[in-house]
What does this fold into?
Amino acid sequence: MAVVFERPKSLVDIPTHYCPGCTHGIVHRILCEVIDEMGIEGDTIGVCPVGCSVMAYDYFNCDMIEAAHGRAPAVATGVKRTNPDKYVFTYQGDGDLAAIGTAETVHAATRGENIVVIFINNTIYGMTGGQMAPTTIPGQVTQTTPFGRDPQLAGFPVRVCEMLSTLTGTAMAQRVAVDSVPHIREAKKAIRKAFENQKAGRGFSIVEVLSTCPTNWGLAPLDAIKRLQDEMIPYYPLGVYKDVTEGVFENVQGGNE
Amino acid sequence: MERNLMKGNEALAEAAIRAGCKCFFGYPITPQTELAAYMAKRMHKAGGVFLQAESEVAAINMVLGAASTGVRAMTSSSSPGISLKSEGVSYIAGSDLPAVIINVERGGPGLGGIQPSQADYWQATKALGHGDFQLLVYAPASVQEMVDYVVKAFDRADKYRMPAMILADGLLGQMMEPVSFPEINPDAYDKSGWATNGHKNAREHHIVNSLYLQPDALEKSIVDRYKKYEIIKETETEAESYLTEDCDILLCAFGATARVVKSAVNSARELGIKAGLFRPKTLWPFPVKEINEAAKTAKCLLSVEMSMGQMVDDIKLAINCSKPVHFFGRTGGVIPTPDEVLEEIKKLGGAK
Amino acid sequence: MATTEILLAGFGGQGILFAGKILAYCGLMDNKELSWLPSYGPEMRGGTCNCSVCISDEPIGSPLVLTPDLLIAMNQPSFDKFVKSVRPGGKVFFDSTLIEANTDRTDIQLFGIPSQQLADDNALKGGSNIILLGKLLKETNLCSLEVMQKAIEKVVPPKKAALIPNNFKAIEIGMNA
It folds into this structure.
C-alpha cells in the first residue's frame, strides 16, 4: 500500500511531554516537514528556549542547543556567525521572546541576523503554570492577573510582528495561526518562506504562530481553539507585516549557498 | 624572539587570535575597551568574527552558541559586565563547553569605579553563576603572561571542556610592556563527538544542554564533572615562589599586586628581613602543594590584595591554618604601594 | 642606577602619553626591561593626565611611578603636585612658558625651558612635549640620540610619517635650549 502520510524524518519518533490539545505538536510537525522538504536536516542547528518547548531538543532530529531563558537569538547569532553555511532556527515562546529576551530578539532582528525565529504566542506562561505573559490580552485571567489583565496596572501587550516589522534588518515578519487546516497550511508556507529567506541571505525572519494552551487557559482543546479564533485573532491580526521579497531590499548577509 | 611593545588589553586580543580564537563577542566597558577595539580591527583579517553585542548577557550567549559548534570563542569585560555574564558562564559550564572569558577587573560593588581592583576573586573562584561548577582561573602579572595564559586558557578549556577565565585588572590591561608571541599551534582537540555543527545525516543528532529534570541524572553529570575537577587540581596548579627558601614572612599576592609586593620584598631583604613572595598563577585550582612548600620556613603569612582580603580564606585552607595569615590590602581602585607593604612587613616582627 | 622611574604629567591633549611612549620605545630599542602605564578614565578627555615609565636592567616591579627619578611637567597643577615626590637627586623638566617653579626643594635639579614658546616660534605646533624630551635627553644618560630617533620613528603612526622630521627638530631644539 502506498504511504500517503507519515512522520517527518526530522521529527524524532518519541512521545512528547506536551499537554493534550496543545498546538506545539502541530508547529513541530510543520517545521519538520519544511526541513525534510528542503533536505536540510543535516545542515540545520536549532536553538530551544526556556518554556514549554524547553525539551524540544529531544524532538527535533537535527543538532540542537538549549539556551538560557530569552537568549536563544544570541545563541543562534553565535552559531550562525561562525557557521554561515548552516541553517539556524530558534523556537521560542512569548515569555522567552517578548519579555526576558526582548533585547536579544530586537537586536538579532535589527542586525539582520540571518536566522529563522519561530515564535509561539499563546498569551500565557505555560511551563510555570499560567502566569501573565507579555502577550496576555487585556482582561485575560491568569495566575498573576486573577482579576483579568488591567492595563493600568500591568500595561499593554506587545505585538511582536508589528514591532519587528519597523526594523530595517527584519526580512520577514508574519503572523499565522494553527487553529484550522487552511491556517496550518498557511503557517507551513510561512515557515518555508522564512527558511528560503535564510537560504538566500535575506536576514531575520520571524513567524509568529498563534497557539493555544488548553491547560492553563482552563479550556477543553476545542474551546481553546475557539478562544484563539474569537479573542486572539482580533487582537493579533494574521498577515504579513513585512516581506522584503515584496519590495526592494539589499541582502544584508551572504546566503547559505 | 622579537619584542613588541603592547598594551595588556591588546596583547590579550592578539594572543587570542594567534591561539585560533575564531570569534569575539563583547560589549563596551572600561577598562578593557582596547581589547574589543583590537578585535574589531584584526579579527576580520584573521578570518574570524567580531560582533559587538547588545549587552554582556547577549555576548556570553553568542559565545555559547559559537562554542557549541566547536569553534574557539571568547568574550571580555570588566567587573560589572562579568556579573551580567555570570548566567551564561553557568550555562556554558553546565553544557560542558569550552570558552575563554577575560575579566579586566575594576572596583566594585555596583558601578564601583574604573581603577584597578582584584575584588572579583571570590566571584571568579567560588561562584561565577549558580550551581555546582568551577572554571579555570588564571592570574597573569605581566603583559607577557597575559599572552601566555590566553594561549593556555584556550588549550585547557578545550582539553577539559569547561570555561576558563583570565582574571586581570585595569593596571595590567592598560600598561605596555615588551611582549613576544610564541609559535602557537592551536591544538586540535577532537570536538566531533559533541559539537552541534550539523550532522550531515552521518551521525546521531547532538544536543548541547544543561537541563536534567531527573535529580539523579543531574547529580551524575555534576559528580562526573567534579571528578574532572579533581584531576585538574592535581595537574594544573601553577605558582611562582620568590625568595621563599629561608623566608620568615611569606607574602602572598597575585596579578598586578604581586609586582608591588615583589618590590617590597626586595626592599625588606635589603633591610635584612627575610621576606619571600608566593604568587599563585592559577587561582582555581589554588596551588596548595606549592604554597605549603613556599611556607615551610615561614613564621607567618601576609596576603596582599586589591580587595578586602578575598584570598585569605584560600590561603588558610591551603596551609590548614597551621600558621597565622595576616592581611593588608587597598580596595576601590587604590593600588597599594611598595612602601605601605614594607611597613606591614616591619609590623609583623620583621624589623631587626 | 638599575631602574629609572619617569613620570610625565600635564593636561590631556599635550602629548603626555605620546612622549611617554617614545621613552618606553627607547628602553625597548636598548633591550631593557620597561613598563608604560597611563592614567585612564575621564581624565583622558581633557583633564589632567599622567604616565609612568620605568626603564631597567631588571624586571620591573610595580609599574606605578610614585617617586620619580625624572619628572616632565607640562602644567602648573602637575608641577605642584609631583615636584614634592621627586626622589632626592632627581631631575625635573618643565615648560617655563606655563609653569612658575614655586618649590623650596634644593635636593633636586630643575630644568625649566619655554618649550611651548619654542614650539610656537619654530612652527612646531604641539611639539612642546618633544622639546622637553630633547632637554631630558641632553641632561640625562637615559639613551643616545640615535635610539630616541629610532623610537620616534616607531611611535609616530605610519599615516603621520611626514611629521617625523618635525619631531627630530623638536628634539634638537630641546637639546640646545
Remarks:
- Chain B has a mean pLDDT of 96.
- Chain B is about 40% helix and 20% strand.
- The interface with chain C takes residues 3, 5, 30-31, 114-115, 170-171, 174-178, 256, 259-260, 262-263, 266, 335, 337-339 of chain B (CB under 8 Å).
- The two ends of chain B are 44 Å apart (CA to CA).
